[in-house]
Specification:
- With 366 residues, this protein is of the alpha/beta class.
- It has 11 helices and 13 strands.
- It is 44% helix and 17% strand.
- It is elongated.
- The C terminus is likely disordered.
Length: 366
């Protein structure tokens, strides 16, 4: 039996943020003005409409009649504009000349309608916001297929996601799961859909549509959390590729038993790279370049094409370093790696090229 070794604080632990906004889906949205600024702008527009109405009435005040004293002064103009724009209309001040009535039809009435639209616009926007959000969420669920779920948006999760994006993955096909609402807000600002919640819970992963995902990246800060997330994700999706990161190498077998297809030991990997750089700084630079997609040299996996079937790995055009045959990973110098079979996949080193250009072939291994 394996025991999970704990290390460090857990960024995936349940915190105050999760209690407040637990298991919410947050779709990325465009940046909009702050609500207070929107309301202030609309109030200024309403005041401008009212001032314009007062000015129109004041300029044509001779065509209006006041039942109280037959005289229309500036205060009466303000009063008339107020009750008219608010559609109250007491009838104590009325337009009686033809010009005043024509101005009411052509100017005052459109201003009244505009005034009402400005006042109720904010209310209507609030009422329709939830409907629009539900519609967007429904459409998102319907269209989401074969996507990538990243659990944990810390340093490891971000780095893994950057590598995937450099290979052509679109942001619309990524869902971030993290217990922190602030982290999900950052992910939204970068164009990713986020789910706030604890990924060890099946209902949280279901909100991320993990059952329809093609690949799952687990980049939590604690190994026990990674194990629970892997178990839950594998139970919900038997066919997805699950890659998990652990801090302690002794926990890697437990991750594999839990259903992870690949386990990366972050602490050991960093230590090995440091040791290699001490022995040979150039070799360390090359290794770091290989794991950084999109620049310099790239390490890629591809299927064997028909022209390569039956050939030795040394006879291929690419620089083949390993052959994946079924569940066996054979090094290029393994006698069983050659000849290549149609169902094989090869791990090759190519020079990074722009997305529109094919990879540059480096040659074969001698």
């Amino acid at each position: 039996m394996f025991h999970v070794k704990l290390h460090g604080s857990d960024a995936m632990a349940r915190g105050a943020d999760e209690k407040l906004v637990s298991r919410r889906i947050k779709l990325p949205r465009r940046i909009v003005e702050k609500p207070l600024r929107q309301v202030s702008r609309r109030l200024l527009m309403a005041l401008f409409v009212m001032a314009l109405t007062v000015l129109i009435v004041w300029l044509d005040r001779a065509g209006y009649h006041d039942n109280a004293n037959d005289k229309v002064d500036f205060l009466d103009c303000v009063y008339y504009a107020t009750v008219t724009l608010s559609t109250t209309g007491y009838g104590d001040i009325v337009p009686y000349s033809d010009s005043a009535r024509l101005v009411n039809v052509l100017l005052i009435t459109p201003l009244r309608v505009l005034f009402l639209i400005i006042l109720v616009g904010t209310t209507l926007e609030v009422l329709t916001e939830r409907t629009r959000e539900e519609w967007r969420l429904s459409r998102w669920r319907k269209n989401l297929r074969e996507h990538t779920v990243v659990v944990g948006f810390g340093t490891k999760g971000r780095s893994a996601l950057q590598t995937l994006l450099s290979t052509g993955l679109s942001k619309e096909q990524v869902v971030i799961v993290d217990p922190s609402a602030k982290v999900i807000d950052i992910a939204n600002a970068e164009g990713f859909t986020g789910v706030v919640g604890d990924a060890t819970r099946s209902d949280v992963l279901l909100r991320a549509e993990v059952q329809k995902a093609r690949q799952i990246v687990i980049a939590t800060q604690r190994d026990d959390t990674a194990v629970l997330v892997t178990l839950t994700a594998r139970q919900l999706n038997r066919g997805a590729k699950i890659v998990a990161a652990v801090r302690e190498e002794e926990n890697a077998p437990l991750l594999r038993q839990s259903g992870a297809d690949a386990v990366i030991t972050s602490a050991s990997a960093a230590g090995r790279l440091l040791g290699l750089s001490v022995l040979s700084p150039s070799a360390g630079t090359v290794m770091e370049d290989l794991i950084q997609q999109g620049s310099g040299l790239d390490l890629i996996e591809r299927p064997v094409n028909r022209a390569e079937v039956g050939k030795s790995v040394r006879d291929t055009d690419d620089l083949v370093v390993s052959v994946l045959r079924g569940h066996r990973l054979l090094p290029y110098d393994d006698p069983h790696a050659s000849p290549l079979q149609l169902t094989d996949r090869v791990i090759t080193i190519v020079r990074a090229a722009p997305p529109s250009s094919p990879p540059v072939v480096l040659g074969s291994v001698d």
